[in-house]
Specification:
mainly alpha
Length: about 240
């Protein structure tokens, strides 16, 4: 567990330092559209990862006490809580996309979401596909006693792989960023679960399963959504270095 916490701290430091480095490069040597995308990503790091993550950490025990008083099945509460946090994260990203004029470009010239419409993004692109992943984790937590820190990395890797598939490129340097974006959707809900003495401790191979299995739950929903709403992105492509 100590090694895992050290890894999490390393990923946090990498995310913050790499964001500052890329911001510096964007300011001195990027076109306006590319620079605006970097500013949007930095806004997500600041609001969701730094401020949101700090708030979750400092209030974790109070939140756990509050959630324990909710009279719903605990795993249903877990899924609903994860969904609420995912909706919050997407509110930040869509806000960043809509702030394009503040970053010096027209709306749609630079973006970090598929649309500037929040409901379109969450209902037809992102959160609708995340929910089956949360259900998958609820099922796994009902069987195996993953610690909150042990939920952190597998779901973060799931998110990184999903983003890499969507972008069509595998950029390992971006892994810490995406790990934090996604893990903050599930860490606090996992922390609020009371001790589950009936669940067994996971074996090593179950952590690999925990990275892949959420895709199995999400793929049927993704197929349906892609059939009903085949438009992946509602904006024109951003030319390199534009």
């Amino acid at each position: 567990m100590t090694m895992l916490r050290t890894l999490i701290r390393f990923l946090a430091a990498w995310t913050i330092l790499s964001t500052l480095f890329v911001l510096f490069i964007a300011i001195i040597d990027m076109g306006p559209n590319s620079r605006a995308v970097i500013f949007m990503g930095a806004g997500l790091v600041l609001l969701w990862i730094v401020l949101g993550g700090t708030l979750m950490w400092t209030t974790r025990d109070r939140v756990r006490d509050f959630v324990s008083g909710i009279r719903l099945p605990r795993l249903l509460t877990f899924v609903l809580f994860c969904t609420l946090l995912a909706l919050t994260e997407e509110a930040v990203t869509v806000s960043m996309t809509n702030l394009a004029p503040l970053f010096g470009v027209s709306l749609g010239a630079a973006y970090i979401t598929a649309s500037a419409n929040y409901l379109d993004v969450v209902a037809l692109h992102s959160v609708v596909v995340f929910v089956p992943m949360f259900i998958c984790w609820a099922w796994m937590l009902s069987r195996w006693d993953f610690r909150p820190a042990e939920v952190f990395l597998p779901f973060g890797l799931t998110g990184f792989l999903a983003e890499a598939q969507f972008a069509g490129r595998f950029n390992l340097a971006q892994a810490p960023f995406w790990i934090f974006v996604y893990e903050l959707m599930v860490w606090l809900p996992a922390y609020t679960l009371s001790s589950r003495n009936e669940a067994k401790r996971p074996r090593w191979w179950m952590f690999l399963l925990a990275v892949i299995l959420p895709f199995v739950f999400a793929i049927p929903v993704a197929i349906i959504i892609s059939y009903l709403h085949p438009i992946q992105i509602h904006f024109p492509p951003i030319p390199p270095n534009s």
